């Protein structure tokens, strides 16, 4: 199996618990998120030995709250590669039984929080009744009570501890001094071990500081990091890892700061598409302006910004293009990094003004209280009382009718319509006023019959050079087509 700095013993212990049929049906890795649970889990999940041992492998991100229907759907989808139609738990558990019956499976439930046994019972009964001999459920959680709620026997619990200082140094050194000779690394070890003391045995802290120090030249600059006043800031020292992240954040340009903190709008554990977030950065003006270039330069700049942030260990869980192994297609934010980005937006650190809304789920009442939006994602019909404001740049609607008067949002630059409901208007009229809008994305827009985009200068520049491209008018849109105009 692949090596993990300071986690070789943990890796072997978990492997034994998973690959031995006589151990607990449910195996739980217990420890706080900063300890590297997911890295250990992913290396194990993708290991060739594990692949050969299990007929089926399914990974489900759970988080809080514990949505048993959503989890059941993901299990079925993970096996059949199709999204189930039903939302009834009884129907879904029967689907689980049918699709994994007799097969030896490994089901990963990542980041479980619930202590409500009743929520787990239907899924456990279905899984236990149909899996082949040796099937396992592998859980990661911060709380040992959760492990016991999910019926993990004592021989199935693995408690993940902090890394030793030496293991932290090896991890930090691998990132900060990549490609350096042993002699060079030895020169930095004394100051490096002092910095490692700030990590408190947390792998994410070592990775974050390693990424920061990679951009530093010489012992003096390493010394500046060690003696930084950031370690003593009252606003951040109360939250573990915030000082480490703030040190890295302070090195960013203003544009990069905005791009990073914006990622807090995505819910925790979301698999974020790089192309999607770059388009949103473009729409919000975070990448500058390239009038006349059709946006190509901005897209390239957006990719460079993303690569810069990824290099600093602010993003993780990368999924790469199968045809181009170096091209990252999607990513996630670690929970602590997400909390930090949310802290920045909430406290107005990057903009100097506090943000009243966050990435948390909002009720229609809360949404209606906000006077001005820049970016909004909504999954049901917008309440009539909501006034989006003239400064709206990004609007992402799912399972909604098209809100009336959408043509009034003259600064709208990114409009994404997915699974449009039949409620509300089925036609966008007078869209000629949306001159700033360079991208409209329509996915399964069954209710949409016509889209007029006359006199949109930026649209013409971006798409007008394509011969035969009907960029000015689109009718009778196929509901199965995803269209980027």
UniProtKB/TrEMBL annotation:
<dbReference type="InterPro" id="IPR036388">
    <property type="entry name" value="WH-like_DNA-bd_sf"/>
</dbReference>
<keyword id="KW-0611">Plant defense</keyword>
<dbReference type="Pfam" id="PF00931">
    <property type="entry name" value="NB-ARC"/>
</dbReference>
<keyword id="KW-0433">Leucine-rich repeat</keyword>
<dbReference type="GO" id="GO:0005524">
    <property type="term" value="F:ATP binding"/>
</dbReference>
<dbReference type="InterPro" id="IPR027417">
    <property type="entry name" value="P-loop_NTPase"/>
</dbReference>
<dbReference type="InterPro" id="IPR002182">
    <property type="entry name" value="NB-ARC"/>
</dbReference>
<keyword id="KW-0547">Nucleotide-binding</keyword>
<feature type="domain" description="NB-ARC">
    <location>
        <begin position="15"/>
        <end position="177"/>
    </location>
</feature>
<dbReference type="Pfam" id="PF23559">
    <property type="entry name" value="WHD_DRP"/>
</dbReference>
<protein>
    <submittedName>
        <fullName>Putative disease resistance protein rga3</fullName>
    </submittedName>
</protein>
<comment type="similarity">
    <text>Belongs to the disease resistance NB-LRR family.</text>
</comment>
<keyword id="KW-0677">Repeat</keyword>
<keyword id="KW-0067">ATP-binding</keyword>
<dbReference type="GO" id="GO:0043531">
    <property type="term" value="F:ADP binding"/>
</dbReference>
<dbReference type="GO" id="GO:0006952">
    <property type="term" value="P:defense response"/>
</dbReference>
<feature type="domain" description="Disease resistance protein winged helix">
    <location>
        <begin position="265"/>
        <end position="341"/>
    </location>
</feature>
<dbReference type="InterPro" id="IPR042197">
    <property type="entry name" value="Apaf_helical"/>
</dbReference>
<dbReference type="InterPro" id="IPR058922">
    <property type="entry name" value="WHD_DRP"/>
</dbReference>
């Amino acid at each position: 199996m692949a090596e993990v700095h300071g986690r070789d013993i943990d890796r072997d212990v978990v492997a034994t618990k998973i690959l031995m049929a006589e151990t607990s049906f449910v195996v739980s890795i217990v420890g706080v998120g900063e300890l590297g649970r997911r890295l250990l889990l992913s290396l194990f999940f993708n290991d060739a030995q594990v692949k050969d041992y299990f007929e089926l492998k399914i990974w489900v991100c759970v988080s809080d709250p514990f949505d048993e229907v959503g989890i059941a759907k993901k299990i079925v989808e993970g096996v059949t590669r199709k999204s189930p139609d039903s939302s009834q738990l009884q129907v879904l558990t029967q689907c689980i039984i049918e699709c994994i019956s007799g097969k030896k499976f490994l089901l990963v439930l990542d980041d479980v929080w619930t202590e409500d046994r009743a929520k787990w019972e239907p899924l456990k009964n279905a899984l236990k009744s149909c899996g082949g001999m040796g099937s396992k459920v592998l859980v990661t959680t911060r709380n040992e009570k959760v492990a016991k709620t999910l019926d993990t026997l004592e021989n199935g619990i693995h408690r993940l501890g902090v890394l030793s200082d030496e293991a932290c140094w090896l991890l930090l050194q691998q990132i900060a001094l990549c490609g350096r000779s042993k002699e060079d690394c030895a020169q930095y070890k004394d100051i490096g071990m002092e910095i490692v003391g700030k990590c408190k045995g947390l792998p994410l802290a070592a990775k974050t500081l390693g990424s920061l120090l990679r951009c530093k030249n010489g012992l003096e600059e390493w010394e500046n990091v060690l003696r930084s006043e950031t370690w003593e800031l009252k606003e951040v020292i109360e939250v573990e890892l915030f000082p480490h992240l703030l040190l890295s954040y302070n090195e960013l340009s203003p544009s990069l700061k905005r791009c990073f903190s914006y990622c807090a709008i995505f819910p925790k554990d979301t698999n974020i598409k790089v192309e999607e977030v770059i388009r949103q950065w473009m729409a919000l003006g975070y990448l500058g302006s390239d009038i006349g270039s059709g946006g190509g330069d901005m897209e390239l700049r957006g990719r460079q910004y993303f690569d810069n942030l990824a290099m600093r260990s602010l993003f993780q869980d990368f999924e790469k293009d199968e045809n181009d192994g170096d091209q990252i297609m999607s990513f996630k934010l670690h929970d602590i990094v997400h909390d930090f980005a949310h802290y920045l937006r909430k406290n107005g650190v990057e903009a100097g003004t506090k943000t009243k809304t966050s990435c948390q789920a909002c009720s229609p009442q809360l949404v209606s209280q906000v006077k001005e939006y820049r970016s909004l994602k909504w999954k049901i019909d917008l309440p009539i009382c909501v006034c989006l404001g003239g400064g709206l740049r990004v609007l992402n609607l799912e399972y909604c009718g098209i809100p009336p008067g959408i043509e009034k949002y003259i600064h709208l630059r990114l409009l994404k319509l997915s699974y449009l409901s039949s409620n509300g208007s089925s036609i966008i009229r007078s869209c000629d006023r949306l001159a700033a809008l360079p991208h409209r994305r329509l996915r399964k827009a069954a209710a949409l019959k016509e889209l007029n985009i006359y006199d949109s200068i930026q649209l013409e520049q971006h798409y007008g050079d394509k011969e035969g491209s009907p960029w000015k008018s689109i009718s009778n849109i196929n509901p199965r087509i995803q269209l980027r105009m």
